Amino acid sequence: MSHNRLYGELSPNWGKCGNLSVLKISGNNISGKIPPEIGQLTQLGVLDLSFNKLAGEIPKEFGRLSSLIDLNLTDNQISGYIPLEIGKLINLEHLDLSANRLIGSIPTQLCQCTKLLLLNVSRNSLNGNVPSQIGNLVSLQVELDLSHNLISGLIPPQLAKLMMLEILNLSHNMITGMIPLSLEEMVSLVSLDLSYNELEGVVPNNRVFKNASPQAFRNNKGLCGELQGNVEPTRRNHGNIFSIWNFDGKIAYEDVIQATEDFDSKYCIGTGTYGNVYKATLRTGHVVALKKFHPVEGDAIVNEESFGNEIRVLTEIRHRHIVKLYGFCSHPRCMFLVYEYMEKGSLERFLSNQAEAVEFDWLKRINVIKSVANALSYVHHDCVPPIIHRDISSKNILLDLELEARLSDFGIARLLKQDSPNWTSPKGTHGYIAPELAYTMVLTDKCDVYSFGVVTLETIMGRHPRELISSLTSLVGQKILLRDMLDSCLSFPSDQKVAKDVISVMRIALACLRSHPQSRPTMHQVSKELLVL
Hints:
The chain has eleven helices and 28 strands. It has helices at 207-210, 253-259, 304-316, 347-352, 354-357, 362-382, 445-461, 469-472, 479-485, 496-512, 523-531, and strands spanning 7-9, 22-24, 29-31, 46-48, 70-72, 79-81, 94-96, 101-103, 118-120, 143-145, 152-154, 167-169, 174-177, 191-193, 198-202, 222-224, 234-235, 241-244, 268-271, 275-281, 287-293, 325-331, 334-340, 345-346, 387-388, 397-399, 405-407, 414-415. The strands form seven sheets. The protein has an eight-stranded parallel β-sheet with strand order 2-4-5-7-9-10-12-14, with no helix packed on it. The model is unreliable at 227-235, 237-241, 245-250 and 297-302 (pLDDT under 50).
């Protein structure tokens, strides 16, 4: 039933199909949790639920699927830990859990699946070390992909036992130390990516490492050795630096200039304090967004602080609800950043367009609020040191075709120092700045919490609450008044659960807007409370 337009939730009645050997429902709009009853299908050999909107945890009952050969859950919204019970799937050959919201460490029990040919847990929020026991998965041949996580520690030298492995990707983590020389024994590798870690020391000197792309080692703490090409960003004529990463295909500076006709105004899709944003369709067919920074004084001076700040922050963090930065160009007369293109533009623009706001139903609005909360919880509580965005507003929340939200514009973001006061001037967008910044000048994570409260009200009301903010805190519990606050573009939710969820979101927003910063919830608490809606 793959690649259709099916929606709704999976029925627990699937567990009664005892003779089922293959179940494929990928590429649909299936939501809800995976029913644990699927664990009763002991004859199941293939289970493919990828590319849906499934949430909740992976059922531990999957450990009963003793005949399972292929398990594919990629690209959903599955959260929680990788269940230890997966280690009981001794016949498993393909396991793909990538592009979800999994947390915790990679369980060593997973290494009991000794028949694995492919293991992909990339693009999650997994932490901890790379288990040395992965070296026991000597059948791994197709791929081992642990990229785009929060994995730290050393590369275990035991990986050298994976002599049949063809693709190894450990990029975009926080892995430290040296590349073990024992990895020279991985003679079957045809693709290697160790970029965006904190590796240092000498790169091994065998064929595999010599033939690897320079991009496979870029953005590490300090690697040296004989590499084909240059690990540093390409330096072109006239002193400009152009660097592209995390992107398919090669992009040249000239491609960007040609695609925008030297940043012609007809390609401009947005303006901001520090620059204009342009849409560019490259010759490869890829569509990207380009943020070109305004000159501050004369043609040759640009706001380098905001430019550099955004690069530093967005190269260190990875989250599905934070806009992806593909690269940058630095030149005395031209500075720009290259981002993923978000088709629906900003939340501010979407809410102000009545025709589009009608399709922005209550569930979609709540989903946007959840996404922003998850992103803020990540930068506040999962990054070390914590990052304070300082400019949370509807114009800095971008929407894709599916109305999934991404947080953008980290130009004035600050790293929060733990052992000293964080003094700041009240920068940000008027109408979203926490009131205490006007008199205390002390930056805390509760400043972002306040701004999030404003954005949440704006999303539900369909407009900025403006002067109503100061009086809204007295409306808690008065449902009639809350009904009057809702966006008139939409009818009051007829579904009782949806109505209850909307009111819960309003209550959370009001808690975020409390005048005393200490009485506001943390974004971790907000995200956790929204998770149950």
